[in-house]
Amino acid sequence: MSPTSSRKPKLVGLLAAIFFFALGFFMLWQRYQILLETRDREMTGIINVVEKNIDQSLKYSYSAALSLALQIDRDGKIKDFERIASELVDENPNIDAVQMVPAGVISQVYPYEENKDVIGYNILKDPTRNQEAYIAIDSRKMFFAGPLELRQGGLAIVGRLPVFIENEFWGFSAVLIKFKNLIDQSGVEQLATDKYRFQFSKIDPVGGKEEFFLGDSKNLDKSYSEEILMPDGDWRIYIIPTEPHQPLNAVIPVAFLILLMSAALGWIIYNTMKQPAILAAKVRKQAGELAKSELQFRAIFNQAAIGMARVDSNSGLILETNKKFQQLLGYSNSELVYMEHTNISYSEDKDENIQLMNKLRNTEIREYNLKKRLVRKDGEIIWIKLNVSALWSEGEKATSHIALVEDISARVKAQKERAENERRFRSLVENSSEVILIIDSNGFTRYSSPSLERITGYKELLVAENEIFSLIHPADSSILIEKFKECRDNPGVAFPGIKMRLQTKCVKYIWVEATITNLTLDKSIGGYVVNFRDITGKQEAELNLVRSYDFVMEQNKRLLNFAYIVSHNLRSHSSNLESILELYGIEECEKERKNYISLLHNVSRNLDESLHDLNEVVSINNNLDINVETLQVSDYLEKTLEVLQLQIKRKNVRIKSQVPQDMKIIFNASYLESILLNFLTNAIRYSHPDRDPEISVKGYMQNSSWVLEISDNGIGIDLKKHGDKVFGLYKTFTDRKDSRGVGLFITKNQINAMGGKVAVESEPGIGSTFKVLFK
Amino acid sequence: MIKSVWVIDDDEIYQMIIKKLIGRSQAFDEEHYYKCVLDVFKDLESPDFQLPDVIFLDINMPQMDGWQFIERLRELCPDLSAKCNIYIVSSSIAYSDKERAKKYPEISNFLSKPVSVEVITEIAEAVNKKTRCRDQA
């Protein structure tokens, strides 16, 4: 704001206020004068009435005094005073009393009673009163003295008429009017109202000082009063407004009002005048800011990291471009200016842009975004993100627009590559034989690769509904649950190698090997990634391998055992032979030598027996192509019991057979016969001497395999002592001579050769139970 | 002083042979032959029964093998190794049996069949020497 512009409204405002104030006060002054004049006029009117009334009273007094004086004869004698006086006083309300004052001495008075005190009083000799008496004598006219304090009491005026007989002063005929009476007669009380007060004064004939008789306002403010002079008594009567400043008071609020109004007017004028100056300042400021923002815009336009071009919306001609725009397209500014924007557009993308631009021009839209291609000067095609905004205000006609151009070629390329990668990975995942599942933390499948259906036959698997667990083989589900828990507590860690059996839709179990990774924290996955593959073939091969290994190990063990047996048994015979031959060599006695020969016979027989046993064992173990067929166990049991009939009867054996008819096994017939015979023979042979043998034969299914159980109440075997030797060769547990320790060894070998197993439970003195677990 | 020997073996023929060999060696004053291990324990129950100086023990026997016999005997006679020299006489030439024999302090040696008169004489002398040393001490 410049100083001149600010001072001027102030000055004008001040002047206007002063002018208005002066005008107002002038008018107020006029009003005040009118008020004063009106009051004066009113006062004059009132006082004139008062004067007339008093004058009237005095005139009555004069005529009364004259009437009284006429009673004085030439000799100075007073006739009929009483009668005349009473007539005068009683008939005239203005007069209170009359006196006859010959030679200044009051001789007669009416009414007498009230005034008798004054008889004999010489007024001429009283210095306080004689002056007025002398005035009357000198002027030979009636003169009213007072108001004065009467000797008989009360304030009154006395009108004295000098009487001359033959030019010789006789005395006075006097009329006495009580001051109160006079004032009543004057009508002052009625006229005064509350607006005015009256004052009655006289110049003291002795002191020359003005003396006042009414009210208490002795110090009369004569500034606004009116007065009249009554020459008959030298009195002055004043009328005084009770509130002398009332007119002034009446105008003071108005004066304040004027003051306020003029100040307000001055302020309004000041403000009104100031407004344009403020506006002007604003305009200047905004113009400055505009220039600044224009500058900033220029800077942004030129330095921007994205290409910018201003384009004529109607013609489509490029108006100006920034550096980045030129760099992007490889043209110089001068080449670009006044070029049609479609010239740099890739032909396939032109139409969409033109349509949008038409909409912009028709003010249907204010801006638009578009991804499109542009052609550089060197012919290279670049992908750009275009943002177009109208540069005209809303409601106006289209002028030009600004186009922001961002090079997104790299981004588009990356996006394409990403999509390509995604497609590649997806096809990898989808064509892989490995199943990939993404399971969210609620247990729902977010994603499952198509191989899921290929392998399991299910479209999806639910963990939440425990569906997945119901499909896992019961023996494996605890492992899976355990792994899931571990996985939950270790996000990001892959738990591989979880092998389990999974039931497929066609109710068959397959072996799968799974890897679980908790990627719930990975936002792009947000779940557990489970990938598994069918390893049934591998697993079966592995199991077969394990089985083969076990089998080989078992064979090996048996072989070792066999070798041990062979070496031990054969060596014992060979060492015996050696010893016998040695002894034979040194023996001289022929009888002893014969004895040694017979011993040699025994050894050879024993050797043959051992070889026979061993041969049997070898034949069982070596006969791989042994003939097997489906055998009904109950049939064979019956047959065996028939064979043993004699022994059973002799020993009074009770047989309890519980072998079901449907118990059919694939086995070698002669082995089964041998096994049954061996077990039953043992059960009968090793019966307890104190009780009848009881043998129970049971057949039942266990883990989908047949079990044959043969229990007896015989002598039993101390398994703590002999546990691992029960089925050993040449192991016997009794001192019976017919125990050779071969039967159970052969039996076990026969069962093993058929892929079965044998187990024993026994307690000495109570009995034994042998179990044959068939394959 | 009297030297006694037990032969524990289930092989009848061997028993006859070893009887002849011991007889020829004339190393022992008292001989006792057990075909069944369990008979040893029956005899042990009699009050005036005494352990021999030497036991020839077979390993592979029915009812109870040589190892079990030693373990059982050890339970009954705590000072077994001091009183008695046990020789394993077995037809086994298995390495595992020889190794196992080393773990038993009671076993003085492992002999593979057949044994000769010389071996029996050597054993008798070794036992004699040992007994003398013990008595002097």
Describe the fold and architecture:
The complex is a heterodimer of chains A (775) and B (137). Chain A is 48% helix and 23% strand. Chain A is of the alpha+beta class and 775 residues long. In chain A, the strands form six sheets. Chain A has a five-stranded antiparallel beta sheet, with helices on both faces. A five-stranded antiparallel beta sheet of chain A has the order 11-10-14-13-12, sandwiched between helices. In chain A, strands 16-15-19-18-17 form a five-stranded antiparallel beta sheet, sandwiched between helices. The two termini of chain A are 115 Å apart. The model of chain A is unreliable at 1-5 (pLDDT under 50). Chain B has 137 residues and is an alpha/beta fold. Chain B has a single domain (4-115), classed as Response regulator (Rossmann fold, 3-Layer(aba) Sandwich). Helix content of chain B is 47%, strand content 19%. Chain B is globular. The mean pLDDT of chain B is 86. Chain B: The modification 4-aspartylphosphate is found at residue 58. Chain B: One of its GO terms (biological process) is phosphorelay signal transduction system. Chain B: Keywords: Phosphoprotein. Chain B: Pfam families: Response_reg.
